[in-house]
Amino acid sequence: PVDRLPEIQEARLKLPVLAEEQVIMEAVRENEFVVLCGETGSGKTTQIPQFLYEAGYASAGGIIGVTEPRRVAAVSMSHRVAKEMNLSTGVVSFQIRYEGNVTKDTKIKFMTDGVLLKEIQKDFLLQKYSVIVIDEAHERSVYTDILIGLLSRIVPLRNKKGLPMKLLIMSATLRVEDFTENKRLFRTSPPVISVEARQFPVTVHFNKHTAMEDYTGEAFRKTCKIHRMLPPGGILVFLTGQAEVHSVCRRLRKAFPYRGSVQHTDAEDTSEELRKFKKVNKKKTVSLPRIDLDNYSALPVDEGDEDRQAGIDDDAEEGSDLDLDLGDNPEDAEEKADPSIPLYVLPLYSLLAPEQQAKVFRPPPPQARLCVVATNVAETSLTIPGIKYVVDCGRVKKRFYDKVTGVSSFRVTWISQASANQRAGRAGRTEPGHCYRLYSSAVFSDFSLFSEAEITRRPVEDLVLQMKDLNIEKVVNFPFPTPPSSEALVSAERLLVSLGALEEPPRQGRMVDMERARLSCPITPLGRAMAAFPVAPRYAKMLALGRQQGCMPYVITIVAAMTVREIFEELDRQASSEQESSKLAGRKARFVQMRRLWAGQGPSLLLGDLMVMLGAVGACEFAGCMPSFCEENGLRYKAMLEIRRLRGQLTNAVNAVCSDMGVCVDSKMAPPTESQVVCLRQIVLAGLGDHLARRVQAEEMLDPKWRNGYKTPLLDDPVFIHPSSALHKTLPEFVVYQEVMETTKMYMKGVCAVQPD
Ligand code: ADP
Ligand code: MG
């Protein structure tokens, strides 16, 4: 029996899934696999684990496992469910890559999908669990996909052995056919239960003209108009990244100052904005026409879609009163600071500190309208209360990989129609709402219907190694919900063979046999050791070699630093005044100086960027890993904490694999000796051997674009050492690099000099 607080009980009763409890639990009782669909906010994540608990799934020896693709969700949902059930976090717990609070009394365990995959490696039958819930399956994260494939085999196996087990797949949008209609996955389609959310109609307004370059400016102007002209109700703005979010927050706070809170602390205005702001203040204010608020057309999202598909022309949709008034003409939209209508502006993105994130769940101060400026995180994982207006820029930032060369880049691309409709839906949670799309309906109709599954978009060598370690030799035959391309599979096996993780395929025999053999190489003992490390195979190889000459603590630190993103703070911000500009220049100079110091002297210089990382982590730990030290020296504090946790975890993993090692994490690590540096360079070369680049010889005879360029085996064009790299001036003949990232040029990241023999 669960003893809930009355206010919790009352809030629960309003959630759509509550009405379906019996139907859902009966389906789970009768079937091995069940798919549950329901709009974001309908109560899937918070309530289904409670239903299972109350139906006794955690009382017969097994526990309830719930997987989430995002760490934030695993942590915050475990807290929320513990609170709702009035149970301690020792009973409703979480486990993510670096930390957790699981105890022997844990009955409901929230974890990231990666954590469960690792557990399958230890116990293929997952005997701890009586039921697994895969949450957010629509996100199609790589690990979620793999887990569904594996569980489609594990669950029947368990039931055959008389150890009953259930799988529940939960998804927000309705594209579940990849799971249900995939005969390799489930021979008979599992039942799909759809929960009707209490969704109010959302009127969708398209721009006549798509905002191309300046969509953040357009988002700002649209938000201002909504705030000035439309009745109360929260505004949610979708942008693509942290920098955009901050810039729009700043401008909105400037336009509608809200006094009486500390919300302005993180806002520093750029000179460009100040200039615009002054200009606006001189211009006479344009008075905007009043709108008749009783005359809205209230079209539900879905009906709007039908209209579009039926080919009704743009003007018919865009010609409503609301659109005339909130038109997409930038000219009349300059804003003048107006403190009489305060706007409570909050940023929301995944790297934001949790206590900042939590603010969006609390009601805004009286008299002020809530405005959340968010990245994609607000699309499905989090439900913000009280949103009535959505402003959608129609874009998302994603990482892209070249299938052949592995070169990656972050690009802003159009979202899918499914995402656009998800975003629009956020406006209709509490009452009828409006969604303003900063693009035309013609552009919308060119969007793809759904976003692609992640597994088709990235290299898969880590997955292939994990699968081989699970003794799945023929990875091509694995029941993927959506299979990766065969190119990706072939290049993954090739890399793993070259790292020594898989056995070499036979070189002789019939062509077809050789082809087949290339895709079914068995794992080697080295491969098994590598699979035990929670990092990508190239880094796992370095760890596997790390025991030479006492290098292990250094290898662990370098690998930890390489796998954590953006450890250095970048100072590319524009200064708003001369004073600030000289302050910024001073900081920049100090950062450069520190990095030079960390790069060391003599032979350690050749370790290049990796030595800088090693030196930075060493110095930071020596100083006790304090936020002030990071701030002064250009290190990202959050990244440093993550590196610290990862070092601990990798150290444990190494000790588990080689029990005689006895390495420990030393916060007062001395720099490596000369012979250790030589050894480290060899270890790095062994891991990154396929990322070798050679300085172009006789470059004067070539195209000027090759100046200071490097040639790599797979790319026709040159790659470069970034000006911020420790080896930028040295330009060694041979280097290995962590990865190539394309920004203004193709730049190598994490460069280290090598001398191949
Ligand atoms: P779903 O998984 O279907 O998207 P959830 O179970 O996450 O739905 O959310 C159900 C409700 O619980 C939502 O109205 C949401 O706002 C509320 N909720 C979730 N987490 C919190 C929290 N930490 N504090 C307050 N309310 C929350
Ligand atoms: Mg959820």
Structural class: alpha/beta
How much of the residues is beta strand, in percent? 5-15%
Distance between the termini: 70 Å
Shape field: globular
What binds here, in terms of ligands, is:
adenosine-5'-diphosphate, magnesium ion
Number of helices: 27
Task: Give a count of the beta strands, DSSP E runs of length 2 or more.
Answer: 22
Spans with pLDDT under 50 lasting ≥5 residues? 261-334
Radius of gyration, in Å, reads: 28 Å
Could you tell me the mean pLDDT? Answer: 84
Q: What share of the residues lie within helices?
A: 25-40%
Strand line-up of the largest beta sheet? 3-4-2-5-6-1-7
Largest sheet report: 7 strands, parallel
Describe the structure.
The chain is α/β, with parallel strands linked by helices and 757 residues long. It has 27 helices and 22 strands. A hairpin with a 6-residue loop joins strand 13 and strand 14 (408-414). Helix 20 (525-531) crosses helix 21 (537-545). The chain is globular, with a radius of gyration of 28 Å. The relative contact order is 0.08. Belongs to the DEAD box helicase family. DEAH subfamily. It catalyses: ATP + H2O = ADP + phosphate + H(+). Residues 302-335 have a biased composition (Acidic residues).
